[in-house]
Write a structure and sequence with these properties.
Length: about 750
């Protein structure tokens, strides 16, 4: 619960408490965020639910007759639902339905659908939230995910069957009916045959062993609205820590330090992050090249004219605390955004940042921004001069060297339907310039709104490919999910685009050929290698602000770079709640990657617990854990190109990776986890250092250890991390890799 002090009282008390509060260094940003929250807390803001409720109540008081009174009551009920007050909404809707004239069939149906959703959501609250288990809301719902208190689901079933009796083509209600039957434990045997959907999503040719959500057991099951996640070693002890955010300006960030023994310490208050509110997305960086990973917070997305919220650059002080340096870094601006990418665009050895802003439906323009690093802790905005001040509804940006010319390029994913590739033409005297080559690259022919995106080399040919997740719809996401189950064509809505690099500056759409012509409606997403076979897999967080968007997150396994298999069902990772920031990380250090995802919707009543899907181990494959540090290149080595050669069961193989944090919504560690199959020794590592056009080679590097390499030094360092068993009530430390020294140099 957030306590809001009157402004006069906060000002009066500040001198007395500023010396003890950890927020003192950050008070300028805290006050700024508070002012923005106060200014945008108006009834016209669709996400200001409490203020809307008061406004609709006042309308009801002045409404003298039907239909004005009915409109106000319906709006009040919907707002109660947004606030998580389902029982209040149900009482209002039931009375409204009884009082409505029978002739208003369409209006009565709309009320019934909202009433059914209230009951279904109340069932989720009493079961999946108040009595949460690792199987809660995992699609298809089974085992401990089935509701113990079935009243909400059963009420919803009755209402959806009534709706479908009069409108058999209401695919949204048909999908939600099947979900409600699952929640009540009656799927598929109790579902009326003519309404039954086959929604298993099983790929019979490929499966993975089931993951288990152990976030609650590990103590990182943070419950909040939509937000971002960073998994990164923020205190340089070799063990990754966790930072999350929530997009609401009433909710602060969270910071959990890895204790190195299978437990985490909540350091939110002592770090200074507790009172820094808002942020739909987070990224890590090292903007000042001091060796400590900093945090960049992105705010205001989706809110259009009410989203002019400042981003934050948080300097890692190296002592467990963070200081907001946005003002002194000259990064302060007020545009709605949730997406950015850090890279050395002008090849001067210092990280710059490109921010993709949202020009929404109000008509107010918000050009994208490019901040070049001045190498003194400050930045200069140069987007117009650099030719990248794009004006669009930008939802995802990613950076990478797609043409292997040594300069970092940009790709922008937009709801406008444009897929924009910006080629970095030159870097001269600290400046750089981009050219829009979308048409020449063959990307402008593929129209359709998209969201999360990234560069990655899915087929290991040494050239970066592009993935962009479709987010174009005219009906509800539940409607499209039912349509897919019924094999009804849906056009481009929600589809996944995979563009393969032809190695000549152009790309080809291989979505259908690789099996990715599926719907996902992905907001968050990232990539990793869940079975250490050297091929990058995908995990997508799905949804939108509507409560009816109960569609599963999805996982796709990369099958030898030829196709992607939907393994959501076998992996047991298809959470039906809203999925946002995604991070792939081997959190228990047992050799295979787990998945941490920030869950929760856009409204206070749609908050949900974050999930940690722990990988049970898929095989006996090995991995290389590689920490790369630049000297003349940027210290975090973001943008470094990695070529890893090894012998897997007698076959010579090569995989390629870029040093980055993965997708555009959620952040993997910058330490690279690279699957190498059955190999226990890496034959050769080649690192092409960003901005220098130089490479280094290391040979005969051991697997299954944290390998640290530094630019200009031919020795590498090897460290074995302790492994933990999160399935025990008290995490068990397992010394899988015993040795006599913590850090071992090698050649």
């Amino acid at each position: 619960m957030t306590i809001a002090f009157p402004r006069w009282l906060a000002i009066l008390l500040w001198p007395a408490i500023s010396c003890t509060w950890p927020t003192a260094p950050n008070k300028k940003m805290i006050n700024l965020l508070s002012n923005v929250a106060e200014r945008t807390n108006v009834p016209a803001n669709p996400f200001a639910s409490e203020t809307k409720l008061s406004f609709y109540d006042s309308l009801l008081q002045t409404a003298t007759a039907y239909p004005d009174s009915a409109t106000a009551i319906f709006a009040i009920a919907n707002t109660h639902l947004e606030l998580g007050q389902e029982e209040k909404a149900i009482r209002l809707l039931e009375k409204l339905f009884r009082d409505m004239p029978p002739s208003l069939f369409d209006h009565k149906k709309m009320v019934l659908k909202t009433l059914a959703m209230c009951h279904l959501r109340l069932g989720e609250r009493k079961n999946c939230i108040y009595n949460h288990s690792g199987e809660s809301c995992i699609y298809p719902i089974a085992g401990k995910g089935v509701h113990v208190n079935k009243q909400g689901a059963e009420k919803a079933i009755g209402l959806y069957e009534t709706i479908l009796k009069y409108d058999a083509f209401d695919l949204e209600s048909r999908w939600l009916l099947n979900i409600a039957y699952m929640a009540a434990g009656g799927y598929p045997h109790k579902v009326p045959p003519h309404l039954l959907l086959d929604i298993s999503g099983t790929d019979s040719n490929c499966s993975v062993r089931p993951f288990t959500d152990l976030a609650a057991r590990v103590g990182i099951n943070i419950k909040n609205m939509a937000g971002g996640s960073i998994i990164e070693d923020l205190n340089n002890d070799g063990y990754v820590d966790i930072v999350t955010s929530s997009w609401g300006l009433q909710e602060g960030m969270h910071y959990y330090i890895n204790n190195g023994n299978g437990t985490f310490k909540d350091a939110t208050a002592s770090s200074g992050l507790k009172y820094l509110t808002g942020g739909l997305n987070l990224l890590q960086t090292d903007y000042n090249n001091d060796g400590w990973k900093d945090i960049f917070v992105l705010r205001g997305a989706w809110k259009d004219q009410y989203g002019k919220e400042p981003n934050s650059l948080l300097r890692n002080n190296g002592d467990g605390s963070f200081t907001d340096v946005t003002h002194e870094a000259k990064l302060l601006s007020f545009h709605p955004t949730q997406t950015a990418t850090w890279a050395d665009f002008n090849n001067d050895g210092w990280l710059d940042v490109f921010i993709g802003n949202e020009t929404g439906y109000s008509g107010e323009q918000h050009p994208c921004e490019l901040y070049l690093n001045n190498r003194d802790g400050s930045f200069t905005e140069a987007a117009a001069k650099a030719g990248c001040n794009i004006i669009a509804f930008v939802k995802g940006v990613t950076s990478g060297d797609y043409d292997n010319d040594g300069r970092i390029d940009l790709f922008l994913s937009t709801l406008d339907g444009k897929k924009i590739l910006l080629k970095n033409e030159a870097s001269v005297n600290g400046a750089c310039h981009f050219k829009n080559v979308s048409r020449q690259a063959g990307l402008s022919d593929h129209f359709g709104g998209t969201f999360t995106t990234w560069f990655f080399d899915y087929d290991n040919d040494g050239w970066l490919d592009i993935l962009a997740c479709g987010y174009e719809f005219t009906k509800s996401l539940a409607w499209y999910a039912a349509a897919e189950a019924m094999n009804i064509p849906q056009g481009n809505s929600g589809r996944i685009y995979l563009f393969r690099n032809r190695q000549d500056g152009t790309f080809e759409d291989v979505s259908a050929r690789t099996g990715l012509n599926k719907i996902a409606f992905a907001m968050g997403g990232n990539f990793g290698d869940v079975d250490n076979d050297g091929w990058l897999d995908l995990y997508l967080g799905t949804g939108n602000p509507q409560y009816a968007s109960l569609v599963p997150n999805k996982m796709f396994k990369n099958v030898n770079g030829h196709r992607f298999a939907d393994v959501t069902t076998s992996a047991r990772v298809g959470n039906l709640q809203k999925g946002h920031g995604v991070s792939f990380v081997d959190l228990d250090n047992d050799g295979d990657q787990d998945i941490y995802i920030e869950m929760g919707g856009a409204y206070m009543g749609d908050a949900y617990e974050n999930a940690l899907y722990v990988n049970p181990g898929q095989n006996d494959n090995h991995r290389l854990l590689l920490c790369v540090q630049g000297t003349t290149s940027n210290r975090a080595a973001i943008g470094a190109r990695l070529k890893i050669s090894f012998t897997d069961k007698g076959i010579k193989r090569t995989v390629y990776r870029d040093v980055n944090s993965g997708g555009s919504f959620g952040a993997n560690p910058l330490t690279q986890h690279i699957g190498i199959g059955a190999a226990t020794i890496v034959d050769e590592i080649v690192v092409q250092w960003p901005g220098t056009y130089t490479s280094q080679v290391w040979k005969q590097v051991p697997a299954d250890a944290l390998i640290s390499i530094q630019q200009g030094i031919q020795t590498f360092w090897s460290k074995r991390l302790k492994s933990f068993n999160f399935n025990r009530e008290t995490p068990e430390i397992i010394d899988c890799f015993p040795q006599t020294r913590a850090d071992v140099p090698g050649k």
